[in-house]
Amino acid sequence: MSDYYLKLFESGRNVFETNLKAENNNITEIQEKEYVETLNHDYEMYKKLCLQINSGSGGRSLHQNDFLAACEKLKQSINGISDVNMQAVLRKNQLVKHDSAKFISYMAIIGVLASCSRWDIFGISGLYFHHS
């Protein structure tokens, strides 16, 4: 492997490992821990294959079969974490919408009650009418 590709690999590895460490320290959703554990395992396997390829061991089949499968597993693990977090965002968005609708209803009720009590000050009952 040329020095350029080796430096590129090391740079990418450092960025990925920094992000992976951050993800390991930011598990907030249900089932996210399981996905992160799977990602950690899949990444270790991927890194091991990369080191074997760099050392020249394993032959051509290692490059084509095992490496591509390891890449696919990594991608699936990352997508699983992304899906869990996206579902949480959507769920929390729905809760906010529900809570804001309740807040608007409560504010309308408070407005009506305040309006009725204001009419009572002037001797006019806003809650019921008197017929003469």
Task: Describe this protein's structure.
The chain has 132 residues and is mostly helical. The chain has helices at residues 3-24, 32-55, 59-121. Helix 2 packs antiparallel against helix 3 (59-121). It is rod-shaped. It starts with a helix and ends in an 11-residue tail after the last helix.
Jot down its keywords.
3 helices, mainly alpha, 0% strand, 132 residues
Unreliable stretches (pLDDT < 50, length at least 5) are: none
**Which class do the helix and strand fractions yield?**
mainly alpha
Strand content: under 5%
Helicity, as a percent range: over 70%
Major β-sheet profile: none
Radius of gyration: 30 Å
Q: Output the helix-strand order.
A: HHH
End-to-end Cα distance, whole Å, is 101 Å
User: What is the average per-residue confidence, as pLDDT, rounded to a whole number?
Assistant: 83
Number of helices: 3
Q: Quick one: overall form?
A: rod-shaped
DSSP strand count:
0
